[in-house]
Predict the 3D structure of the following.
Amino acid sequence: MHDARALIDMGAEAVRRLARRGYTLDLAALENLQSRRNQNIRSADELRAESKRVASEVQQTAKAGGDIGKLKERARELKDEIREIEAGQEQVQEELRDLLLSIPNMPADEAPDGDSDADAVEVRRVGTPPAFSFEPKDHVDLGEATGILDFARATKLSGPRFAVTRGAGAALERALATLFLDLHTRRHGYVEHAVPYLVTRRTMTGTGQLPKFEEDLFKTGVADRELFLIPTAEVPLTNLYADEIVPPAELPLALTAQTPCFRSEAGSYGRDTRGLIRQHQFSKVEMVRIVDPAEARAELEQMVGHAEACLKELGLAYRVVMLAAGDTGFSAQLTYDIEVWIPSQNTYREISSVSDFGTFQARRANIRTRDENGKPKLVATLNGSGLPIGRTLAALLEQCQQEDGSLVLPEVLVPYLGFRRIAADGTPEA
């Protein structure tokens, strides 16, 4: 969320920067709402001052035995005028807030121009994609042939875009989540949390999912209580500190959690709807950092490294790209995508997004710290996937497949699994 005064002061520069992400800022409408808001505040203050003065005159005139009829009439008129001004002020304030909530974050200057994944700039490649002497299968065929993935029964339970893992597949999901949490808590300094999966509208608004992306969310409720299923642990983790002032000595805060994630994935189609790439429910380990704004860029680079460490531990080939300004998420200033190699598609596919939000989310959620003079100031927030379990499982199955249909898993998983190989019939083998 932006500060209206700051946008107006930036003027044409704000219009230019937001245009890089395809958003047209109506500066005149913003200025009009801000002006009306300020005028209402001034008018209300003037009327309250007059009301206070008239009340004092009523007391003094009554004490002197004078006629207070006209004064009391004016006092009643002033109360009505104040109520009317306050109602108008509330309406203008709501209109201004709705407009500000709809304006995306400004992309960082270093984000490349463009509006699609084709405009992303590659930063680095790590690892060599495996070369097979046979035609590699995709993770759906591999999972169903071994019996560790069952999409048909998942569809029977919940409809399309759900999955059931069984046997060695379920154990592999659990092992991946535990490995990632161990890396982040023991090596990277994150504090693990167990958080609610249902949150309020205000919580969703704090991190930017609402009001713009309501159609992408699953919603539930009991009686008059409205709750949303989280699309990522970013939502509860970041909002843990909503309406708080975090002492500077406690920054940076590094938080992590494994949660289910629920997304409607409206508009996705084709190859993405097959298998584990885009599902309505999936498990993910999330990283969130709450930092001093001056440290945000350095913290972003560090967080990218934390996500990369998960893939390096598994020996999976991947690359890192910087997203174009027009392809960056609504709340983000700058985003790195980490893309893992998917052999069946002969390409890299996104497995983690790591973003710097600047003070955008902090303003919405009212998360602050203190400056060197002790005055409250907004923090910066960052988040990244570290990593989604389903997409990691898909990449792992495809990069680790053998010609006979078996799977040879990374050595790092053996302490978590108790086995390293999954036979073609799904049997775990040492």
Summary: The longest strand covers residues 281-291. The mean pLDDT is 95. The radius of gyration is 27 Å. The longest helix spans residues 27-63.
